[in-house]
Design goal:
Length: 438
């Protein structure tokens, strides 16, 4: 890294809650131990290359507003390397240990497949060097199978076999590069794997084709010896009207149906959960219950807007709920908290990207500490345990152990008078959680 891209910004340090410095951490203290691990080990923060470094901030009514001094918008390899240099400086200054990319974020899409793959290789060599210099790791790679016009009707679910083949070739290459960069994972997000109308769609064929595609990916992974974790990232819609991987439960069902479950975990994104009308903690719990909680795309939506606004997460109540699920699931193995989030169109200065990440990191640090205390104190867990106590002895135990039958339950039920279950005490529990939110 020859040039400095953010000369005015010093490496962001932990200064504690009382500091007046807005470019400091108030809560994220990477070496502080929470439970058995440091905050750095728990949280595994990652930069999303596409939002932090690339892309305009255009909306349907206007063009980009951002200053991106490191990106001249050209398709040259030199430009791609400059973007990478700026990205690694940004990660170092923020203390982010990981990053994620799409193939077309790090290198340009050129006129033909071979030229695009060669460009990707050239930039990957540079990324490898930067990783070595800084110790920053690739959390996951992915292929952009949604931006190019050829993918307008899907990639692995396209009605056109030639498009399907190009998508396969693109994923093959992106996996090779992820492997070369020692990526800890590889993500499949099917933005256009879905449909707009059933009138023109053979859903059964499309879903089967998607399963074939993923089986080929599993085979190729073995072939090249890539040990990283495969993830599927659910989202119900946008850009497709109906996306096949609509939520965690739908993904798990699809993976089970096609014999893929052992090869995949889920990458849960907050705003995708809310688009599916779930709280993010629901999606995390569904994944964890299936042993498939892999990674998190950390962002948040806007309550008043019905699309994927990809805002930075600042709500400590929400991060607390997320950390409760993550801690209960035993924490991350290969995954991390990837800030799949972008600054608002109005926040067009470079320093805004720093404020955004600092806020997100502090919000998760607080969520982690609070969730840890809630679990340590144990009042919440004790309440939940007691709520199900009837399943730990007597007739309930026969249900839990699978020994009950309809006949045995009927025999028991006939002996009972009226039964009133205990209160769920939701309000009391909400008050209890609020006691921790200081
Ligand atoms: C879009 C998705 C995307 C994936 C990676 O909504 O979140 O950014 O994380 O393709
Ligand atoms: Ni995402
Ligand atoms: Ni998203």
């Amino acid at each position: 890294m020859s040039q400095e891209y953010f000369p005015k910004i010093k490496p962001v340090a932990y200064e504690g809650p009382k500091t007046k410095n807005r470019l400091a951490f108030r809560h994220y203290n990477p070496d502080e131990v929470v439970g058995k691990k440091t905050m750095r080990e728990h949280l595994r923060f990652s930069l999303a290359y596409w939002h932090a470094l690339k892309g305009g901030s255009s909306d349907p009514f206007g063009g980009p507003t951002r200053q991106r001094p490191w990106d001249d918008g050209s398709t040259s390899i030199d430009n791609a390397k400059r973007v990478a240099d700026a990205g690694f400086e940004m990660m170092q200054k923020l203390g982010l240990g990981f990053y994620c990319f799409h193939d077309r974020d790090v290198a340009p899409e050129l006129d033909d497949l071979q030229a695009s793959s060669d460009a990707l290789d050239a930039v990957a060599d540079h990324l490898k060097k930067l990783q070595k210099q800084t110790g920053i790791k690739l959390l996951w790679g992915t292929a952009c199978l949604f931006a190019h016009p050829r993918y307008v009707q899907g990639a692995a679910t396209s009605p056109n076999a030639d498009v399907y083949a190009i998508a396969a070739a693109q994923v093959k290459k992106a996996m090779e590069v992820t492997h070369r960069l020692n990526g800890l994972g590889y993500t499949f997000w099917g933005g256009r794997e879905g449909y707009a109308t059933l009138l023109n769609t053979d859903m059964k064929r499309e879903v089967a084709n998607l399963a074939h595609f993923l089986h080929m990916a599993v085979d190729y992974k073995k072939k090249i010896g890539f040990k990283g974790q495969f993830y599927i990232e659910p989202k119900p819609r946008e850009p497709s009207t109906h996306q096949y991987d609509s939520d965690a439960a739908a993904c798990l069902n699809f993976l089970r149906e096609f014999g893929l479950l052992e090869h995949f975990k889920l990458n849960i994104e907050t705003n995708h959960a809310t688009l599916a009308l779930h709280r993010v903690e629901h999606e995390l719990a569904v994944s964890a219950n299936a042993g498939a909680l892999g990674s998190i795309d950390a962002n948040t939506g806007d309550e008043l807007i019905g699309w994927d606004t990809d805002q930075f997460p600042t709500n400590v109540y929400m991060t607390t709920q997320m950390m409760l699920q993550l801690l209960r699931a035993g924490g991350f193995k290969t995954g991390g908290l990837n800030f799949d989030a972008k600054v608002r169109r109005e926040s067009h200065e470079v320093v805004d990207i720093f404020h955004a990440h600092i806020g997100g990191m502090d919000a998760f640090a607080r969520g982690l500490k609070i969730a840890h205390r809630i679990i340590e104190d144990g009042d919440l867990d004790r309440f939940v345990k007691a709520r199900y106590a009837t399943f730990e002895s007597g007739i309930g135990k026969t249900v839990t152990t699978g020994k009950a039958t309809f006949e045995s339950l009927e025999k028991h039920a006939l002996k009972l008078g009226s039964v009133i279950p205990a209160s769920g005490r939701q309000e009391m529990l909400e008050n209890l959680i609020n006691d921790y939110m200081d």
